[in-house]
Records
---
Amino acid sequence: MISPALVVVLFFALLVTAADLYKVLDVHKSASDKDIRAAYKRLSKKYHPDKNKAPDAEDRFVEIARAYEVLSDPTKRQIYDRHGEEGLKQHEGGQNQPNPFDVFSNFFGGHHQQQVRRGPSSLTEFEVSLADIYQGSSIDFMIKKRILCDHCRGSGAASDSDIHTCGGCNGNGVKLVKQQIFPGMFAQSQVTCNECGGRGTVIKKMCPHCQGNKVVDHTAHYTLDITPGMPEGHEVVFEGEADESPDWEPGDVVLRVRSKKEKGAWRRKETSLYWKQTIGIDEALMGFEKNITHLDGRNLLVVRKAVTQPGFVQVVKGEGMPSFGSKSARGDLFIEYNVVLPVELTPDMRRKLSAAFEPSTSTRDEL
Ligand SMILES: *[C@@H]1O[C@H](CO)[C@@H](O)[C@H](O)[C@H]1NC(C)=O
Ligand SMILES: [Zn+2]
Ligand SMILES: [Zn+2]
């Protein structure tokens, strides 16, 4: 007889083996090879047991390697899509699966990246308002770039049947030429085929969509997510989003985020915020209560009861920038006071002020 506990264990085991490989990599079933690689790159780093000390990190890491190994192999992926995990097992016929750590080091260190040529990455300075960095924000932007022509998928030909093996080099891309170095004596050398430019193929009819250029201009839309407190100059990477070409894996689009310099307004240095406040002579002498509109639109009440000297800096704890990567920590706000004097004094003010500043003389006068 099977005990209930065993049934539960068996059921659980079935669930584990049936874990959807697409879910493991957090990609859609229609994900491209590029998406799968990007997902593996992100997740394998996140769960690598050298870095991630969570108790289940290693299991996740192994699962992720397995999912990548299957989904990055077109044959295995097809079998998995049609026949699931069972079909895969039959296909693999009890072969050992590769060590997940080898999968990792091959992906990052080894030949994988040498084989693939990377196109140029782009770096753009991206200015946002300080308020956006204070509160966090999502900013839509566009990039003009070149993408593979979707009509010919980067071949440049009107159809696959318009791509022919080059007759000049029989598809080798190079020609052997005989050169006479002495009468009756020849040397053979290899030169790039001039008919196909070394590609080994010639196109009879160009793709009408891209005129054979293989790529077309495109305006792509993205969203830049600004985390509150993002440091000045922080680089946000959009992996593989630079110009496409059939000759390379696209490079990255990198945005370097900075706050706009706005004159006379808020300034920031790391987690500290600076604000310049102008007050009148009356406020400087007698104190005041004032609202300063903070970067998030909030009224921040500042109170001074004592005399405020020009240039005095008031520190308001915890009203600076949020610190990047920590939800609760915040820097301080430094308010620097500038005192303005009246341009002119009316005779009445003059009399009153002199009375105020020379109390002993004025009282004597009145007596
Ligand atoms: C400051 O703002 C608060 C509300 O935002 C308001 O209740 C208060 O009266 C204001 N104080 C001054 C001195 O303006
Ligand atoms: Zn050729
Ligand atoms: Zn085309």
---
Amino acid sequence: MNRPIRFTFKKMLEKEGYTVFTAANFAEVKEHIQGHEFDAVISDILIPGTNGLDILKTIKENSADVPVIMITGDPNIFTAAEALRQGAYDYLSKPVNRQKLLQVTAKAVEKKWLTNERKRLAEENKAYQKNLEGKVRERTQELEELNFFINNIIESIPSIIITLDLEGCITMLSANALSLLGRQNKSEVIGKTYQYIFPQKLARDIDKIIQEKDWNISHECQLENGATIGYNVSLLLRNQQEVTGKVLVMRDISEKKKLENELIQSEKLATLGLLAGKIGHEMGNPLFGILGYAELPESKYPQEEDLKHIVKQALQLKKMTRDLLTFSKPKPPQIASIDINSILKETIKFLKEITGQIKYHEVIVEYSPCLPPVMGDEEQLKQVFMNLLINASQAMKGPPEQDTLKVTTALDQQEKKILVCIEDSGCGISPEDIDRIFSPFYTTKGEKGTGLGMTVVKEIISKHQGHIFVESRLGQGTKVRISLTVQQQQ
Ligand SMILES: Nc1ncnc2c1ncn2[C@@H]1O[C@H](COP(=O)(O)OP(=O)(O)OP(=O)(O)O)[C@@H](O)[C@H]1O
Ligand SMILES: [Mg+2]
């Protein structure tokens, strides 16, 4: 544009507060734009020394964001459109009045300001994001280390740790919890409700603890598999206030329990030993007399039921005395070669025909035909079978046709052992009680039982270096298996 117009535009714009630089030709334009950041450029499309579109290109190369307003004398639509295509912000056709000039300039300056602002914010945002990423990385590492540390502690202590959320779903567990739960992988249990995952008895006990809010109190639970678990349930708190779940800390205390029981048992046995000696001694002689006096008339008057009862009761007392005497200073066992089948036959006959302690029951017997002899005390082994058969018979209270008492003998060739099995279809024993049946004085028969029968059985069998195993299901019956070592060939 020519000088007067440049001057007029400069005046008009400066009056509005803009700082204005003018250039008369392309060389001056280049000089100005070097190292300057303009908010807007207003240029004639025809400028001495070059084409207006070249100016636009040069300015854009130097600073892509600056809005360039082109002024065209001849409103040649083609040139204007070309200018816009090449990045011009707008164009003004001559003659340009003040209002139009100010309006377009203001818009262009505002656009530049907005572009600058957007850039600044983008940069700020980028820096902030970078900073944030750094902080997140740092915290993640800290958390990973903490997590590793906590996991290490959890996996190193022998206690089993399990956490539950508010709904009772398992959220975390130590590796040693898996064997308690009978699982292989944590993924099998995480997210599942403890009632479905825990052994039934433990789940029931924990339900109760949660209902009764028995937090932080030590509990014990004997599981279905016989193991004993010591545990407590605590609340899981966030900021020591908000309850977010529960934490269970458990320990397998089976071994400790076993030792405790053995201690109690041996203390009981020691007391029993003293007592037994005294009672056995005091009762032995009068009992011998009663039996002698009663058996004589009984054989004379076999139809007299009362006499039979006297003999039966006296024999029961004799058995009890004998049980007690096993604990007092025991007489040395009379070791001899014994045929197990025949002492079983004799014992069953005795209990059916003499004492009547096996009533109604049809005894199914399956004796192995080729049992080698065992070395043992005949009287004591008879006592073992008698106690077991009486227990089996007493456990069966159903109609006679439904009761089965089965006695089998077998030979384990490989192990060189004789196996005796006495099986009944009686009331059975619950898993919690099965270990207690060998404890002295443990009985569920009230006044009718002394609770010594099984204690005596165990004592005699272990003296014979044998083993006893009891399997039972409540309401279905009991199987007692005894193994005795076969007599070595001389
Ligand atoms: N075959 C069985 N079926 C069911 N319960 C049994 C059986 N054998 C033993 N028990 C349980 O074990 C307990 C202890 O048995 P044990 O023989 O030691 O004493 P008892 O039979 O009660 O009395 P006793 O000293 O007169 O024999 C019994 O009271 C009973 O509860
Ligand atoms: Mg008994």
---
Amino acid sequence: MAEGFGVGLALLTWILLGCQEEARAEQELRFKPAPRDRPVRLFTEAELARYDGREEDQPIYLAVKGVVFDVTSGKEFYGKGAPYNALVGKDSTRGIAKMTLDPADLTHETTGLTEEELKSLDETFNNVYKAKYPIVGYTARRILNEDGSPNPNFKPEDQPHFTIKDEF
Ligand code: HEM
């Protein structure tokens, strides 16, 4: 008799646990965010170079610190013939840090920048680019090391204003 009761209790516990598990799975399904249907892109230098404002109906992209921004809405700055057109279609981190349009500085390279330039770079990155323009991807260099191995310091979640714009 006691044995039967024990088996019954075990069975009940098993059923209850099963129900809980089912409810948890359902909850998870319900609250899981919809998958992004437009994944951010990985840009090689050649791909990024296509978005330099040359073509009237093409979007204009500019990378800073390996983050590719769609700056099309700032066409008066970045479009063909505009004052900052030299910055687009590439990663212009160094030029933005030093506030120069010298072609030698229009590169991702940051070695030798002063503390002040690095601070200015971060300010422009946060207060101009991240604040104003949608992120459309990352440069291959930001995600992969020169030897093709993944960069462990890549953290897309440090982009709080992460939005994706139509294009793809
Ligand atoms: C004579 C020198 C310059 C003057 C008078 C000047 C003036 C300006 C002005 C008035 C704005 C703000 C426009 C607005 O928000 O409506 C601006 C934005 C900006 N300037 Fe300059 N600028 C100069 C040189 C440079 C140089 C050499 C660089 C090189 C990187 C540069 C990079 C930028 C950037 C990145 C922005 C932000 C554009 C945006 O909002 O997308 N500027 N500049």
